[in-house]
Specification:
Elements: E1 4-14, H1 18-29, E2 33-41, E3 55-62, E4 69-75, E5 93-101, H2 104-113, E6 117-124, E7 130-135, E8 141-146, E9 158-167, H3 171-178, E10 186-193, E11 208-214, H4 224-227, E12 231-237, E13 255-264, H5 266-276, E14 282-283, E15 288-289, E16 294-301, E17 307-319, E18 324-327, H6 339-343
Amino acid sequence: MNFIISGIQQVGIGVPDVEQIWKWYRKYFGIDIKIFEEAAQAPLMTKYTGGQVHSRTATLALSLQGGGGFEIWQYTSRNTQKAAFDIQAGDLGIFITRIKCKNVTKCFEWFTKEKLNIVGALSTAPDGKLHFFVKDPNDNLFEIAEGYDWYADTNHLCGGVAGVILGVSNIENSKKLYSDVLGYNQTLYDQTETFTDLHALNGGHKKFRRVLLTHTESRKGPFSELLGKTTIELLQAYDYSPRKIFENRFWGDWGYIHLCFDIQNMPALKMACENAGFPFVIDSGGNFDMGEAGGHFTYIEDPDGTLIEFVEAYKIPIIKKIGWYLNLRKRNPEKPLPRFMLKALKFNRVKN
């Protein structure tokens, strides 16, 4: 069997205070279902944490309306470090996380009323669709964009992660990973110019090449219907020497620390990544226990060093109060989980 990508499982976000920012994400994005919360050391990540084992707390949360979740990650053994420079459009790494939205105009009006830090105005992307940008209280940028495939209805305007915007140094090199290996094989637009919808972003007046990628095939796997269809936008700056967003910092520091895909068949994925020139740089091996969840996780670097995580889940909690945990090893790896089962995750909802 070949490997299966079910979708974007989560975007990792390094924060100074998990509880404070997650409360904000619950209110404005509806990311309120807790999958796990764990405080522990991170011994496998020392390659990216200065050669030392550091302690952290991590919370994985998602929206039942669909889309990927957030792994909200906070150091407990050191202070979380911000970038020492002002990050600009085109800098290398995960620059913006895309959040799916039922009604972009209504969301813009709501966020305006709430006096959130909206960057720029309601505008039109190169594909002709409305979107806007907003910063969370930690200055992380989010794109609020039109969403389609909704899993459940929780009466919130927003759902989960529908993609990311990545700063890259060479789009053709990046497509060798994102298109050829990860299956983002359809180009929705490919334009090179200055873009009015980016002007309000720091450095957004530059000339860019923007390529929006998606996948023609519907994703398979246990969580494919929940995670939904996603996009990867590659942003390459011209007449500008970009800096790495995590230059001189650790994985887990302030900002977007990784992009994580939910997968099946890690050995086949390992072979595909190696053959394409992207070997695993971190491999948990076997069953890695996250307390309330377990599985096998690995990392690769994209051509610019951005960390991409893969997780093959073995165990997840469905209803923790009654001890209902799902063993995914006993199920058909291509078949989506029954909707009644995942909708039972509502019992893990955390309310403000």
